[in-house]
Amino acid sequence: MESFVGLFDPETQDEGVASSLSPLPVCLPPEAAEGNIEYKLKLVNPSKSRFEHLVTQMKWRLREGQGEAIYEIGVEDGGMLVGLTSKEMAASLHTLYLMAEKLGATLTVLRERTVSVNLNEEPRKAAEVLVRKVPDDQQTIELRVAVLGNMDVGKSTLLGVLTQGEPDNGHGSARLNLFRHLHEIQSGRTSSISREILGFNSHGSPVTYGLCRTAEEICETSSKLITFIDLAGHHKYLRTTVFGLTGHSPHFAMLVVSAVCGVVGTTREHLGLAMALEVPIVVVVNKIDLASPAALQSTLNQLHRVLKGPGCKKVPLQVSSEDDAITAASILVSESIAPIFTVSCVTGDNLELLYTFLNVLPPSISHKERERLMQLPSEFQIDETFRVPEVGIVVGGLLTKGMIREGDQYLVGPTDDGSFYPVRVSSLHRHKVPCRVVRACESATLALSNPETITLCRGMVLTTKDSLPPICVYFQARIHVLFHSTMIYSGFQATVHIGNVRQTATIIAIMGKQGIATNETASVMFKFMKQPECVHPGSRLLFREGHTKGIGRVTQVFAFDDGKPLREERVS
What we know:
- By secondary structure, the protein is of the alpha+beta class.
- Helix content is about 20%, strand content about 35%.
- It is built from eleven helices and 28 strands.
- The protein has helices at about 50-65, 85-105, 155-165, 180-185, 215-220, 240-245, 265-275, 295-310, 320-330, 350-360, 365-375; strands spanning about 35-40, 70-75, 105-115, 125-130, 140-150, 195-200, 205, 225-230, 250-260, 280-285, 315-320, 335-340, 380-390, 390-400, 405, 410-415, 420-430, 435, 435-440, 440-450, 460-465, 470-485, 495-500, 500-510, 520-530, 535, 540-545, 550-560.
- Helix 9 links the parallel strand 11 and strand 12.
- Helix 9 (about 320-330) runs parallel beside helix 10 (about 350-360).
- The longest helix is centred in the first third of the chain and has 18 residues, at about 85-105.
């Protein structure tokens, strides 16, 4: 959805970096009946019945935006920018405030724009207002952002600065809080998946560890949370990075590029993975304090060519003002754009633009889709396992469907023989804070009461007894080979990633072909080498072996059945 400033036309640009956004358009696209964006020409002294209707309408828009709505004031339903006088604008914003107050929501005026200037009349303006209210059944509005990029570009440092609210000292002080292992601190390189949270309060101000000492305080103070998933940049840890992208299901991906080095190392590979998984891309050019103007321009030109290339087909959009940041956030999901931020973690240059962008970034999944997922039988995918003293087994992961409550009983599996074991959820935590319920599309950690000694591992699922997911050793998929040096034939083995499943699989049959070469597509039959896995038809698939890369979708699953009955012992 275009807002007060439109996208540039790529056909009119040269090969340099895309300029900032174009001047104010004559009109916006017509108002959509669905979604969280509402056009209002004016809201001056409405009658009581009209006011109640407006409140109901705001409630609907907030529900569509999962707690956030955008109001365009001074705009007709057809999209024409008419504008209001200062008196009309003040009255309209007052009415909007009363509407939000009745719903317990808050208002933030994102920007005002002059629509027309006439020497004989008062200038007329249009305004864009963010309305925010955390849904009654949620603690906060949550987004997950995966952080990608080559090693030594400053990914962990950038997250440390964003979440701590303090600049780096130029020697990596900001990243120390993100590292999980001693060798990461010693080498300065991430090798595991770590999560950090950044909050925004109801007025859009960032809530960081510099203001709050604990994650619990951040959650209590914030109405919106950004969960950053910090992934490894070194090629040696590529499988960990791929698992982070497939298993953690991020809403957005932030690709960090060094202004000094440009697009090097694993940058293109990470970009390609995000594109294959259809995750919207945001580019952050870091270390601009170390780069000369010529080096910075060279990096931006290089990014421009890569993003506009046939593999991405994105419109590069350099963000140089708060207005640009708001517009980029509003159209990132609906348009094929890639916003580019240029920042410094030492001097703090342009970090406020990144904060503004993250604050207004909308959910990438619609309210209707989330409601549909919440009505389905529960299925929790296990990404991490722990054994905590005096607690027992704790699993972390993402609830893909349904709802989980404290005290509920479930089945966990599959094990090596395809069995599922009964467990009970004894406690729930989200963002290190105890909670009573977890809903679809939310990440959490669960403490399990387990009467039997079983080994839990990544790739397993927690599900209900009445709705076991499909378990298979054999499955069929339609794949596209991104790169292979020769031909792929039957018998080829590769590591396959399907959601949180990561296992070696063998191609045992290729339908209608002898072999598959680079840039070719075929339907193939896979067989897992170790144990059965939970795989849903329609799931997106990635496979890799050395430099060989491929993508695809699961088309058919062949149910696993070794003749053993399902274990149904009750939890004691």
